[in-house]
Amino acid sequence: MKHVTLAPVLLFLTSGFSGGCVIHINGGGSFQLDQQAERVETRALELAPGETLSLETSFGRIEVNADGDAAPELRATIRAHGRTKEEAEAVLARYALEIERHSHGPTARLVGEPLRIQESSSRAELSASVAFVASVPPGTAIQASTNSGEIRARGPLGACQLETEFGSIEVEDARGEVHAETGSGSVTAQRVRGPQVVLHSDFGAIGLEGVQAEHVECESGSGGLTLKDVRAGELRLSTDFGAIEVDGVLADLRAKTGSGSVHVKARPESRVAPSWSLQSDFGGVTLHVPPGFGCELDARTDFGSISSDFDLRVQAGQRKEKTLIGTVGDGGGQVKLSSGSGSVALRKL
Length: 349
Fold this sequence. Notes:
Layout: E1 2-6, E2 11-14, E3 21-25, E4 30-33, E5 35-44, E6 52-57, E7 62-66, E8 73-82, H1 85-93, E9 95-102, E10 105-112, E11 115-119, E12 122-127, E13 129-136, E14 141-146, E15 151-154, E16 160-164, E17 169-172, E18 178-182, E19 187-190, E20 193-201, E21 206-209, E22 212-220, E23 225-239, E24 244-257, E25 262-266, E26 275-280, E27 285-289, E28 295-301, E29 306-308, E30 312-313, E31 323-328, E32 334-339, E33 344-348
Parallel strand pairs: 1-3, 2-12, 6-10, 6-14, 7-13, 7-15, 14-16, 15-17, 16-18, 17-19, 18-20, 19-21, 20-22, 21-23, 22-23, 23-24, 24-25, 24-26, 25-27, 26-32, 27-33, 28-32, 29-33
Antiparallel strand pairs: 3-4, 5-8, 8-13, 9-10, 11-12, 28-31, 30-31
């Protein structure tokens, strides 16, 4: 049961909650919306190779599955709430699923007009919501957006553009560019292959596993970043608050956290091209590299210790208590390890 307090002015309500809703009005009175009406519509999808399916909803979950054996179709679950069953049905009847074709492919959305209700001097508008489940051919590109709801994209899809203001995002097995952004929620990508993978959460953790891309970018306003079995030509990682953990084959690396540790394992075949930078304003920084690794090391900390499992050739005056600058192995690109408050270490795998 949901409770909202408001002044006696016009209120717009989207019917996306699973239970009822009670709207309390200052000065007395309330709208109690505990009756639900639901309709499921299934439509065949016409998708030519290279086309994009766009799904838009203000409130509702979106799920897309790439399946070469199933016929392309869209299943839309439309829900509405009201004070009575009849009122909920009346709201539901005002809305319909619309699929429009554009040059890039079909776009699906819910269209209709809200029902106005009034009790004394207080008014509200009741609207319906829709959740989508789509089955599409492999290689289909996806654009999905919802103001509130999770998004799931599974199977060998093409390029994926996914956005929600409130909800988690999961992508599995995509074979194209992936851009996924949420205002609040986690973002995860597994077994993605494509030219670039860009994941963003204003508030939530980000995770990648088995991802291969030329460019990988992960950014969180508040949340940890965890990357496992990643292969990236260019890797850009940033979080204001949270730990960063990376395990994979690396080339061009930037990892920075405002508060949290940075822990990177660079697997064999990794190369410093052209440079690596691991930084924490408040937390330890540890880099694990294979035996035989070479670089120009620049390690610094304001408060903490510096250690290395490798012998370094250090120029005169470059070994200090809080700074270590020297050549590891046969040298190579520059590796910068820095912490504002925390220990810094270079370790052998």
